[in-house]
Amino acid sequence: MDQESANQSHKQAPPAKTKYPELNPLWIGLLIDVLGFYIILPYLPALIDVFDTTPFMIGLLLATNAMFSLFSAPIWGRLSDKHGRRPILLIAEAGTCSAFLILAFSNTLTMFFIARIVDGIFGGNFPLTKAIITDRVPQKIEVCK
């Protein structure tokens, strides 16, 4: 009996289950969207040297993604309300993937700008992910006494 209880004490507890497992793929999509904005940061010093450009142009390159996301995210939100969240999220993810491919094969500063613009236009992943989570997870209301 002592051996059996010792074996049971060494067993690991089962992994904790998430409350909403259907949302797990969204976290991956959200990570990809965040990577799309920050993926270029480690290469900025090299870009200044390789393309013989100014820090202002590199700052503009960074801002391009955010500027296009600012204008396209509400459009993606309206489209997801009309056509459904899943198909629009898949389209946005495909656009982000194409932007990553353009970025991977960029050999001019213009191609870098095009990749950042495409990623910004398809940058609806974050607001769509938040909308899906809001749709799936019930609101927790606390009553103060």
Molecular structure report:
α4 (55-83) packs antiparallel against α5 (85-104). This protein has helices at residues 2-10, 24-38, 44-50, 55-83, 85-104, 109-121, 125-136. The protein is 72% helix and 0% strand. It has a single domain, classed as MFS general substrate transporter like domains (Growth Hormone, Chain: A, Up-down Bundle). It has seven helices and no strands. With 145 residues, the chain is mainly alpha-helical. It is elongated and about 60 Å long.
Low-confidence stretches: none
Main sheet record:
none
Structural class: mainly alpha
Question: What does the average pLDDT come to?
Answer: 82
CATH class: Mainly Alpha
Number of distinct helices: 7
**In what range is the share of β-strand residues?**
under 5%
Assign a percent range to the helix content.
Answer: over 70%
> How many strands appear in the DSSP assignment?
0
Named CATH topology: Growth Hormone, Chain: A
- Second CATH tier, the architecture: Up-down Bundle
How many domains, in number, for the residues? 1
Instruction: Output the CATH homologous superfamily.
Output: MFS general substrate transporter like domains
Oligomer: single chain
Shape field? elongated
**Radius of gyration using CA atoms only:** 22 Å
Can you tag this structure with a few keywords?
145 residues; mainly alpha; Growth Hormone, Chain: A; 7 helices; elongated
